[in-house]
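Thread: quick sanity check before group meeting

JM: Hey all, I'm pulling together slides for Thursday and realized we never actually wrote out the predicted structure for the chain we discussed last week. Dropping the sequence here so it's in one place. If anyone has concerns about the input, flag it before I start.
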Amino acid sequence: MTDERQVPDEELQQAPESEFNEFQTANDQFKRSFGSWFWGSMVAATAFHFVLMSFWPSMTAEDVGFTQDEMEAIELPPEIEIPPPPEQIQRPATPVVTDATIDEDVTIEPTTFEDNLPEDLPPPPSEGAVDLSDQPTFTPFTQAPEVTNRQQVGRTLQREYPSLLRDAGIGGTVMMHFFINEEGVVENFIVAETSGHSALDDAALRVAEAFEFSPAYNRDQQVPVWIQIPITFTTN
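JM (edit): ok, ran it. Output follows.
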C-alpha cells in the first residue's frame, strides 16, 4: 500500500525551492520555459530570413513590348457589276375542258412484220455453220443438267489426285466448262480457270471424262448447253 500524506499549506510555504520543484508537473515546467523558447525561435526565424534575402538573386521585369509593322495598302479588285435577276417565268395557262367528242370505238391498227419488212437484212445462217461445242456459248434453258454419277466421279477424283501433292497437303480448285448435247452426253470440256498447279489441272481433265449428266430443258424441249462446274482437290 502506498503512503499518501497530505502536506499542509504552511509546510509548503516554508519548504525550500528544491523541495517545491519536486511537486511541479511537466506542464508547469513547460509553461515556465515558454518565454525563452518563443523569443529564441523568433530570433532564429529573423536571422534565417535575413540570410535568405541576402543571397536571393535579384529579379528584373522583362520588356514585353512589341513593334507594329507599317500597314501596306493593297489594291482593291475592280467592282463587279451584278446582273439583274432573271425575269419571272410566266405560269402556264389554266387547262380548259374542251367540248370535243371522242369516239369510244378507237382501235389501233395491228402491226405485222409482213406489212413492215426491214431492209438490208443479212442472210440467215446456214445449217451446221454454228457449232456450239467449239467454245462456251450461252444457251437459254429452264432446267439445268444434273450429274447422275456423283459416286463414280468422287472415286475418280480420289484416284486421279496426284500423290505427291496429296502427301504435301497441296490442294486446289479447277473450274471446268462442260458442253452437254441434247441427250445429256458430254461432247467437250475445257479448263475455264486454272488451280495454279499444272498437275491438278491435268488431273481435273481426267476426272471430267467420268462425268455423266441428265439433259437440259428449255421449257419442254431438250437443248444443248455449256455449264460450269468446279473440281476441288482437298486432303480433308
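AS: nice. Strands lie at 172-180, 186-193, 216-218, 221-223, 225-233. DSSP finds seven helices and five strands in the chain.
JM: adding both to the slides.
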